[in-house]
Amino acid sequence: MNPVRATRHGLTLAHRNLLRFKHTPDQLLDIILMPITFVLMFVFLFGTAVSGNWHTYLQFVIPGIAVQALMFATLGGALALNTDLRNGIYDRFRSMPIARSAPLIGHILGDAIKYLLAVMLVFGFGAILGYRTSANAPRLLTAAALLLAFAFAVCWIGTLIGIVARAAETVQALSLVLIFPLTFGSNVFVPTDKLPGWLQAWVKVNPVTQLSDAVRALLAQQPATAAATHALLWTVGIIAVFAPLAVTAYRRRT
Amino acid sequence: MSYGIEIEGLVKRYGETVALDGVDLMVPAATIWGLLGPNGAGKTTIVRILATLLRADRGVARVGGFDVQRQPDRVRAMIGLTGQFAAVDEALTGYENLLIVARLLELPARQAKQRANELLERFGLADAARRSVKTYSGGMRRRLDVAASLVGTPKVLFLDEPTTGLDPRARADVWELVRGLVADGTTVLLTTQYLEEADQLCHGVTLIDHGRVVRQGTPAALKATVGGQTLQVRAENRARSGDVGVIVVEILGGVAAAESDDGMIAAPLPTGYSAGATLAAVATRLESAGIEVAEIGIRLASLDEAFLALTGSPATTEALR
């Protein structure tokens, strides 16, 4: 199967993934409602307490919530993949003259677009509330690229979970076990130096922290090289570990 | 004669379990062939191997002349599969489901749309084309599923229990569709637990049980092999049904007997057994065993009993209905 045809099949299945997304309002809610709720809750409930006033906090928290939204979006993707694998639809794909990798490519491409949507929604909603960035175009693009690359990396984790889990409940449980420590055990909501000392050790190495820091700094025209490098290293590391695992699991399962 | 499907000595094991134990099967092109057997007999395993979803441990399987293991892409290009679980996307509309399949088969955009609409029309789904499949009835889903497997105009079509769970009307619709396909030259292999379905639809039937071919032939020939008569006995005391079964089996030379919910023991009369003499013999044995009889008689065998006699499978009514 040549790569051009495999890509074409993958794109068709990515299109299917997005069509499903369009028709499934609860999946949309995951991506729209969750970030909006978090933005409102944290900005108005804790904003003043953490940063003195909620305007300052808004500037701090929006990039972090964007990262969090991206993490939560993996859950929906993993669930959808899991459902696909358990009903007959992958059998149909596999009995067709298409590239074996096409369903996986389609899944990941389609999901990446959902993640992008989730991130854009957070920034859009933040902007309505008054979030502003002074970043120039290269910095904006760098931030977007970092977010997208990380989304792609996390997508492989979600994919692995979606493939190995035998039931939807398992997907949910595994994903939350993964998402909670990563998002809440980070400096998404509270600056690292205000967290208890024992927690700081984890928070500082947490990729979600690194990425949030990088995006914040990039968008606030502050030095971002160190955080961006760390975030990128994490991204590459996650892909290097989870992509082969997911592909192996996929080959075994299908 | 050219064959749509050729299978020789197919063996498949799952660990210790032998799913297929040397199956041979030749299906002439442009016929409907039924694979009949109880749950777990190996029907689905055969279909999955033919559809390139599963590798056999031994044996050869060819579809349209191509080896399923060595030329899977050639095979995939000429088959359609409707599995046991509806392989349609619930979240999508009927039209979108077919369109995706058409695009995967690399039909150009316009042709893909045309093909999707054409199939929806033909399968009586045109009115529901723009509705999400979630809102479809079981029969509509099945029809869409079959439609999806036909997008690429396959030469060989596999239908794994295409009518399970359908009401009689929807079942008749699917049968009509399948007949139309074969008239156009498609070879159809269908698995079913319903003898009636095989009888109505198939040119030939292969009965399998425990991974082996039990019998092969036309549905009529199959029915004829069991003589067509059934002995029925019901004990007054339900607790004695087991003893009745033992006596019946012994007198009939070891055929399989079935017990229904009301305690009726039924067994097919093998060829060469006279109805009157058998009845007398059973009555005498029951008398001497001290079993009070509520009901006894001989009637014409049903297809279900023919099936039971040939496969010797446990008489769970579930497997037969």
Automatic annotation (TrEMBL), chain A:
Superkingdom per UniProt: Bacteria
InterPro entries: ABC2_TM, ABC2_TM_bact-type, ABC_2_transport, ATPase_proteolipid_csu, Nod_factor_ABC_transporter
Topology with respect to the bilayer: Multi-pass membrane protein
GO biological process, one term: response to antibiotic
Transmembrane segments: 28-51, 57-81, 102-128, 140-164, 171-190, 231-250
Domain ABC transmembrane type-2: 26-253
Keywords for the protein's UniProt record, in alphabetical order: Antibiotic resistance, Cell membrane, Ion transport, Membrane, Transmembrane, Transmembrane helix, Transport
One GO CC term, this protein: proton-transporting V-type ATPase, V0 domain
Location(s), subcellular: Cell membrane; Membrane
Stored Pfam families: ABC2_membrane
One GO MF term: ABC-type transporter activity
Similarity-based family: Belongs to the ABC-2 integral membrane protein family.
Protein name as catalogued: Transport permease protein
Lineage: Bacteria, Bacillati, Actinomycetota, Actinomycetes, Micromonosporales
Automatic annotation (TrEMBL), chain B:
Keywords, alphabetical: Antibiotic resistance, ATP-binding, Cell membrane, Membrane, Nucleotide-binding, Translocase, Transport
SUPFAM superfamilies to which the protein is assigned, alphabetical: P-loop containing nucleoside triphosphate hydrolases
Biological-process GO terms, alphabetical: daunorubicin transport; doxorubicin transport; response to antibiotic
Residue ranges of every copy of the ABC transporter domain listed in the record: 5-235
Membrane topology listed for this record: Peripheral membrane protein
Location in the cell: Cell membrane
InterPro entries associated with the record: AAA+_ATPase, ABC_transporter-like_ATP-bd, ABC_transporter-like_CS, ABC_transporter_ATP-binding, DrrA, P-loop_NTPase
Family: Belongs to the ABC transporter superfamily. Drug exporter-1 (DrugE1) (TC 3.A.1.105) family.
Protein name as it appears in the record: Daunorubicin resistance protein DrrA family ABC transporter ATP-binding protein
Organism expressing this protein natively: Rhizocola hellebori
